[in-house]
Amino acid sequence: MARKTKADALATRAAILDAAEAVIEREGIPATTLNQIGREAGVTRGAIYWHFKDKEDLLDAMVARAAFPLDDLRAADARAETTDALDELRQFGEQALIRLAEDPHYRRVCRILLHGCVRLGRHHLFIAEEEAVKSNIHDALVRLFQKARDQGTLDPAINPELAAWSFGSYMRGLYSDWLLAPDRIDLAQSASAILGTYLNGVRARDDGNDAAR
Amino acid sequence: MARKTKADALATRAAILDAAEAVIEREGIPATTLNQIGREAGVTRGAIYWHFKDKEDLLDAMVARAAFPLDDLRAADARAETTDALDELRQFGEQALIRLAEDPHYRRVCRILLHGCVRLGRHHLFIAEEEAVKSNIHDALVRLFQKARDQGTLDPAINPELAAWSFGSYMRGLYSDWLLAPDRIDLAQSASAILGTYLNGVRARDDGNDAAR
DNA sequence: CTTTACATACCGGCGTGTATGTATATTTTC
DNA sequence: GAAAATATACATACACGCCGGTATGTAAAG
């Protein structure tokens, strides 16, 4: 072939990124070759090198396309000014798990970031990006747990900072574990129960004498 | 050099395995070359190919050296015949986290298995092994939660099977998350609180009328 | 003298990056 | 508005290095 129209070129670029996702999901980043990506996308390495500086640049663009539900979390935090913070947290967590179960694109990117050898070797470019996202998530979680404490729904024995870390790890573990064996559990259906058991543990126990307030 | 004594040879073998751990921890499995391992171990690839059939064989031997605390979990399950199952679970979890924080060897292997691209590409050999361990862990957890249910300490609304899965994911998330940023939290010190918040959520609430039994 | 425990040398393959070819879209010129 | 010039969007070909595997050398242990 030869030169395509501008729209065609953009489609090619997107196809390359899609192919990269698919191949990397199977093989992991270090084992993925530009040949495989090209074959999957139906182009040669020439096309890849035209659209991207090098392999690193391609990976960077691929990760950049992934949108994490950070906005949802922030929205939940904002709503929690007037609503039950722990309830917002449960709803957010449920939504995240359901999205993982039902959005194949999101699932692929999560698999790559969790099991794709992202932070080994010298892939410093997007680990900085992901680190920032993680840090933002943690901050939002801390704020939510602080609101819960102020609302009196958080068990006073629990440190909001630690709770945020623990909750984040719980979600990461659920993501990671489920992605290894997606068929073992109907995640969308169990999401509510899974989140519930955890949040039960951090919620203050109203031992009768709390109804007065 | 030339031929060493039998003990020397064993030491060389161990050095190669140690080096493999160290390099793979940094680079991940697919990006690790036998040259790097040899350099790290102070030998050439010749030595590696003498002790191991090929790369896969070396990796297999490396993973085989790692002992997972499956026995501890089974012991906890056995003790739970006469003790509080949820308490056994908490103690086991704490021990596991503390070991992760304090045993560098265990830490390395966990990092490799969690972030080393183990199950991508064609490393079928030891994913079978790890799959079996995981399955055993899950079974032991289910038994423990069932005991807790029988003992009346488990919230009756919670399904033991789901709880086992959820608890396993929680631990995996804690491992995975902490290994990414070990300095952010003093794991050994927080272990108790971290486990406590979770197990609080699954424990039956004795709303007064449970003291009779 | 044979076996062991490696080191060294060699080979085929593959992957990255780059240089070059080329047909077409787009722009420029008249 | 058609032809010429040029930039675009790739495909093809090439150079280079490195990696895994194997074949061979070799000095000391047994």
Automatic annotation (TrEMBL), chains A, B:
<keyword id="KW-0238">DNA-binding</keyword>
<dbReference type="Pfam" id="PF00440">
    <property type="entry name" value="TetR_N"/>
</dbReference>
<keyword id="KW-0805">Transcription regulation</keyword>
<feature type="DNA-binding region" description="H-T-H motif">
    <location>
        <begin position="33"/>
        <end position="52"/>
    </location>
</feature>
<dbReference type="InterPro" id="IPR013572">
    <property type="entry name" value="Tscrpt_reg_MAATS_C"/>
</dbReference>
<dbReference type="Pfam" id="PF08361">
    <property type="entry name" value="TetR_C_2"/>
</dbReference>
<dbReference type="InterPro" id="IPR009057">
    <property type="entry name" value="Homeodomain-like_sf"/>
</dbReference>
<feature type="domain" description="HTH tetR-type">
    <location>
        <begin position="10"/>
        <end position="70"/>
    </location>
</feature>
<dbReference type="InterPro" id="IPR001647">
    <property type="entry name" value="HTH_TetR"/>
</dbReference>
<protein>
    <recommendedName>
        <fullName>HTH tetR-type domain-containing protein</fullName>
    </recommendedName>
</protein>
<dbReference type="InterPro" id="IPR050109">
    <property type="entry name" value="HTH-type_TetR-like_transc_reg"/>
</dbReference>
<keyword id="KW-0804">Transcription</keyword>
<dbReference type="InterPro" id="IPR023772">
    <property type="entry name" value="DNA-bd_HTH_TetR-type_CS"/>
</dbReference>
<dbReference type="InterPro" id="IPR036271">
    <property type="entry name" value="Tet_transcr_reg_TetR-rel_C_sf"/>
</dbReference>
<keyword id="KW-0678">Repressor</keyword>
